[in-house]
Every structure is written in structure tokens, then in C-alpha cells.
Protein: 6-phosphogluconolactonase
Organism: Polyangium fumosum
Amino acid sequence: MSEVSTARFEVTVAESEAEHAALGAEIVARAIDAAVRARGSARVALSGGSTPGPVYRKLAQMALPLDRIDWFWVDERAGDPTSPRSNFRAARADLGLDRADAAARVHRMEAEDPDLAAAAARYEALLRRTFGVASAVAFDVMTLGIGDDGHTASLFPATGAAAIDDRLVAAIGAQPAKGLEARLTLTAPVLCEARTVLVLARGAAKQRPIASAWSEGPEDEVPARVLLRAQGRVVWLVDRDAYPTG
């Protein structure tokens, strides 16, 4: 493991997939513990995909105060929550959130609703009830990834999604040419308010988008650049192959 600090974020380079998972789980667990100690509960926002799976499975082995953790989702694909494509399904299985002491505090996005705009509005209302109407929606810890095209959450390039700032949750239309189904996603203002953001990336294909995300430029071109204006702690946890060398 090696660490790099910048004015805007921290970078930790893991030497193996096992170390990547262990470090990611430790960062999330420490953020949860700090939140419970400070405020009595922790609010976590989860991303899907294959990269966070090992982190979540390692986290599930830890002694977490499940009766004090609320679990939310960063984004979700439109469709059945039991589908193999569902971010909810994958994260719940990896974390063991179907347990009785956790299930009542699991808050999934209802992306199976044909009216995604209505589903987005319901999730936004849930966030407002949870965090307070007059308070910032500041998750204690949030996991994110970065796509080969530079997207994060479901904020995709050249769609204007990174610029949405008038709502907390947005419905994102399908992009058939790219094979992307419609989605629900937290918007950039929510990502930027999180107290701790953990960005997970592995593999050489991530070098170029990570380098772009770390540099100034249009957010619509590389939506992960929104994290350059994050208010809280941002940790990029990458493996050696993903670390930009140029």
C-alpha cells in the first residue's frame, strides 16, 4: 500500500485485490464508527458494480452496529430489484442486508416503477425526511466508482447529468446506442456533500479516466470531475494498474 495526498483528495494504492478490499472496508467501517459516535447513527450510500463487491463482503465480516446504520443507494438501473443487473440486489447480498437487524434500515431506489421521475421524487422525499428539510443531505460515507468513460454514479458524459443541481435524485434516460438502460441517480450536489467519499477503481482501463477526473475541465465531459468540488474527505482507493502514471 502507498498513499498520496493532494490539496483536494487522498489516493491510496493497493498492491492486491485482497488489500484493496480490506482497505476499502476499513475506510467505510471507520466512517460508520465516527458517525455513530458523533451523531448516534450512520447513513451510508452504496454504489453497485463488480468493483465494490469484495469491499462489501469484507465489510460484512466486521462487527458493525447494524441497528444504527441506514443504507441508501447512489444509483440504480431501471428494472426488477431481483435482476442480476440490480445494484440493490448485489449490494444487499454482499453485505448480508437481508438480516432482520438490518433489513428495516435498507432504503432502496424503486427503479422498477415505469414512471422514473415519480420514483426519483419519492426517493428525494425520503432523503428530505431522513436528513431534514432545511439540512444538507450529507451522507456519512458514500462509495463510488468511475467508468471507462469517466462517469460516476449514473452521471454520464455529454448528457448534462453532471450539471443537475435543482434536485437530489434524477431520472436518467436510456442510451440505447451505448447499451445503457434508464437509471435513477443521486445528483452531483449530494455526492459533493458526503462527509467521506470512497472512490473504488481497479485495472489498467481506469488509468485514463482517473487522470482526467483529477484534472480541471468540463464536468459534462468527465462527470467524475464533480468530486473536485466535494466538501468532505475524498479517498481514491485504486490498485497499481489503475494508478495514472502519465
Summary: Residues 2-239 form a domain with the Rossmann fold fold (CATH 3.40.50.1360). The mean pLDDT is 93.
